[in-house]
Design a protein that fits this description.
Blueprint lengths: L1 H4 L5 H15 L7 E12 L9 E3 L8 E13 L2 E9 L7 H12 L8 E6 L6 H9 L3 E6 L11 H7 L6 E6 L5 E13 L3 E9 L10 E5 L6 H8 L5
Parallel strand pairs: 1-5, 5-6
Antiparallel strand pairs: 1-3, 2-3, 3-4, 6-10, 7-8, 8-9, 9-10
Length: 239
């Protein structure tokens, strides 16, 4: 830590080298599929003043806190979950979270056994340039999306989520990475979103009588895929 803080060692290079060695040493999965998930973590205040610190809160009902946030890129397969990249966010740079995430995807080093990559993240990482970059690299993405996504006909996804009848949802079984079953009420639809093109939309809620405010939207560019498969890909973030 003294070498890192003094500037003689680069923390990003250290994490990159260590993660590359660990990924090459661990046993490979039989199907050659690895999941890359993006997430944020918050560190509390370090000292009285911090150049990258900000005052924020997680939700409208949470208390305010002061600290700095970091973007993590996590690789997972089987029962392994390894953070391979990290970067500190600068609150003064607009969209710095998306910039860091795209840089991680462009410069990530994966083992030679990787045949398929599935990238997932919450709505905070689902920027249009990021999704286009994943599509360009030939990878698969499954992201949670915000309600303000627009269709090519001018309507919004929030309208579909608000006025969709309850009888349109079907109960489907999804499986967590450890094999546990988790049932959800889902509705799947092939649609064309603005700036994304043809995608598969999945509306999911925990119970049949849950209101529209509790419905979550997931989007993937895979065409022929079941809703249960999409949700199972997304829950790999917490493998």
């Amino acid at each position: 830590m003294r070498m890192v803080r003094s500037g003689q060692w680069d923390a990003n290079v250290l994490v990159d080298e260590m993660s590359r060695d660990v990924l090459g040493w661990l046993p490979a999965p039989a199907d050659g599929v690895t999941h890359l998930s993006a997430d944020k973590t918050r560190k509390d205040r370090r000292g009285h003043k911090h150049a990258l610190g900000l005052v924020n809160r997680d939700s409208a009902h949470s208390p305010y806190h002061f600290g700095f946030e970091m973007v993590l890129l996590i690789a997972s397969w089987d029962h392994f979950r390894i953070p391979i990249r990290l970067a500190v966010m600068d609150p003064k740079i607009k969209g710095h979270q998306h910039i860091l995430f795209r840089h991680m995807l462009e410069t990530v080093h994966l083992p030679s056994w990787v045949r398929e990559v599935i990238v997932s993240g919450d709505a905070g990482f689902a920027a249009n340039p990021t999704l286009k970059l994943i599509d360009k690299k030939g990878w698969t993405y499954v992201f949670a999306m915000a309600r303000n996504r627009k269709f090519t006909n001018g309507k919004y996804a929030s309208d579909l989520m608000r006025y969709l009848p309850k009888r349109s949802y079907r109960r489907r079984a999804t499986y967590k990475p450890d094999g546990r079953r988790c049932d959800d009420w889902v509705f799947e639809k092939r649609a064309t979103l603005h700036n994304l093109g043809d995608v598969t939309m999945v509306l999911s809620k925990k119970r049949c009588h849950t209101g529209p405010n509790q419905v979550r939207l997931f989007v993937t560019h895979l065409q022929e895929v079941k809703a249960s498969t999409v949700l199972s890909m997304y829950v790999w973030r917490w493998g």
